[in-house]
Structures are given as structure tokens and as C-alpha cells.
Amino acid sequence: MVSPYRAEARAILELPYRHTITVAAMARMSIRATYALDEQTDQRIKHLAKTWRVSQAEVIRRSVQTAAELSRETLTPAQVVARYANDALPRNKQDTKRVIQSLRAMRHADDKRRAV
To answer: What digits encode the pLDDT tens for the residues 53-112?
Structure first.
């Protein structure tokens, strides 16, 4: 069923103008939710909404979609272990030893920094 508002908008847009106007109607949202946010997150959402010229809800939708896409690309620790148990490491033993020494040095430096 077409709402009367959409039918009216369609009729207005079909007037014989030189330019064609395309209206992309947003899907009707059926879920309303309330979340408690800290002040900084609230300000960031408002800033993004203003910058992107969209609603705050659209900022949240886009952010959640992006986060979901990124999380699909990230391997879980179990997947990493399984991958390296079945396949060769991406570097040779010498490179691996160098990486281990470098990580240990960074950890020790960080321990010293925190002790101060």
C-alpha cells in the first residue's frame, strides 16, 4: 500500500520540468532503542551527523555497519593458531627470532617506564 504522502510526492515530481528529480525514500525503521552514552561519544555522534549532513541515527547505523565489516575481516585468536598450526609461518626462523627479541626489548622498556 502506498502512503498518501508518497503518492502526492510522486505526483509532484512527475510535473513536466526539464530536470528529473529522484527521491530515495529511506526504509521505515521499526526498532527504537535507548542507549546511555558518555558525553564525548554523544559529542562525536553530533559532530559526525553535522559533518556528514545526516541524522544521528544514520551516524550510528553507518558506524555499526563499518564495525561489523571490520570484525568479519579480523581473525580470532583460535583462527590464528589454527592457521599457523596448518601452514608455514610467514617468515623464517632468523626473522622470527629477531621479532621475538624486539618484542621482549619493547616489553622490558615498557616495564621500566611504568615502574617510574
So the answer is: 999 999 999 999 998 888 877 788 888 888 878 877 677 888 888 989 999 999 999 998
Torsion of CA 94, 100, 104, 107, to 10 degrees: 140
The angle at the Cα of 76, spanning 71 to 77, to the nearest 5 degrees, equals 150
Q: Are 75 and 83 in contact (CB under 8 A)?
A: yes
CA 13 to chain CA mean position, Å: 35
C-alpha 62/C-alpha 71 separation (Å) is 14
Q: Return the closest-CA partner of residue 23 out of 36, 38, 12, 37.
A: 12
Q: Which residue has the cell 561489523?
A: 68
Check residue 11 and give its pLDDT: 46
